[in-house]
Amino acid sequence: MLKRLLLITLLLPITAFAAKKECGVKPSYDITINKESVHIFNKKDDLTIMPNGNVVLNNRSILPNPSLQKKLVYFQQDLRQQLPQLEQQSLNLLLEVKMTFEQAIKNHLSNDSELKSELNKLYKRLVKLLHGSISTENGNTRFSYQNFNNLKKDGEDIGQRIFYNVVGGSILHLNFFKNLGAIKTISKNEWKAQKPKLKAFDAHICSVITGIDTQYEQILTQLNQSIHK
């Protein structure tokens, strides 16, 4: 019974602020950005790019040719702009969806305080989850690829745990079944309204990450070629 109810709750769809279709590119490196440099690294490669395009690859300073240096300058500039922007866009979308569902709760359930409380709890946990993937503070940005790649699954897990809390508490007070029709209406209507926006944002995230990954792989290849000339 609970598994069937899980499918119609209004809380769970909010966790999927990306669509079900997976992006073809999954990053495999962390990124840290500060005023002095952009640092991209994993167990295999360690790349530091300075604002002027000078680089250190695996503890080895490399003097890139003018064409590659120009590409490096633009790449680190893109990262400085795109990652904080992606973080803010994600936060804005989460807040927008939360406020939409809050209004729906008010309209259909007379501002049910318990459900709003669980919705706010879900929102705060998703924000925390997002900041585990992309976080900007005092002009410094950190991107964690493992957290980013698990963002959708972890978000759904949080949504399910909160859902069971709502169902468990509501069964005790008989509120959930009394409000079941209203909850089904909110879930169906609001999720249908939000889905195109979330799908478009999912495509946007994939486009940004794919662009970053493509540039990074090209630059890494060119740097390694210049070393072995």
From TrEMBL:
Keywords linked to the UniProt accession: Signal
Record flagged with keyword Signal: yes
Superkingdom of origin: Bacteria
Signal peptide range: 1-18
Protein name per UniProt: DUF2884 family protein
Record lineage: Bacteria, Pseudomonadati, Pseudomonadota, Gammaproteobacteria, Orbales
